[in-house]
Fold this sequence. Notes:
- The complex is a heterodimer.
- Chain A has strands at residues 5-7, 10-13, 19-24, 31-37, 44-50, 53-56, 65-68, 75-79, 88-95, 104-105, 109-113.
- Chain A is mainly beta.
- In chain A, strand 4 and strand 5 form a beta hairpin.
- Helix content of chain B is 0%, strand content 47%.
- In chain B, the strands form three sheets. In chain B, strands 2, 5, 6, 9, 10 and 11 form a six-stranded mixed beta sheet that branches.
- In chain B, strand 5 and strand 6 (45-49) form a beta hairpin.
Amino acid sequence: xxxxxxxxxYKIIEKRQSVAFWCNPISGHATLYWYQQILGQGPxxxxxxxxxxxxxxxxxPKDRFSAERLKGVDSTLKIQPAKLExxxxxxxxxSWGDRAYEQYFGPGxxxxxx
Amino acid sequence: xxxxxxxxxxxxxxxxxxxxLKCNYSYSGSPELFWYVQYSRQRLQLLLRHISRESxxxxxxxxxxxETSFHLKKPFAQEEDSxxxxxxxxxxxxxxxxxxxxxxxxx
Lengths: 114, 107
């Protein structure tokens, strides 16, 4: 089966600019996750979708980050405006609805904010 | 608060030597723990879960509730074991990751 797809793979922007990341989960996976992984740290959950509804966005900085999952399939994560501390790898993962432990991860998008 | 601690950022082990990657957790309730692995230029992936009590690629991990630990072990390290290893805890439908330990197998 095809894995989780993400694009772009790399992005360099200046602070205060906007950026968007795209994720296509594994077909049939109801749950989709966005993680932020800062260098030297483990992945930190930003937002979790179940189909097209938000399950948890408690760690999403809502003043600058937004995410949507229209039609319960693809998802986009946006940062507007970006700050230097947003430099990180943004990982998308998906899973069957009741198997949160068995998440399949995408390759990630490495964001550098200068 | 639920937390996963991996005290070692880097662990260097000679090929053929035993490996132990340490993980401690704090969780109020019955924890469900996992090890994830990320090989160079590959995606993060699940290695093993404590519930299944299985051995994957020669690795095992035993949940010790008394010591709140879930250390990952392998009796004889192989060069292909070099990777980043993340201990993780399940809370509801979310996974909480530790900061990771880089395992470097020396020839």
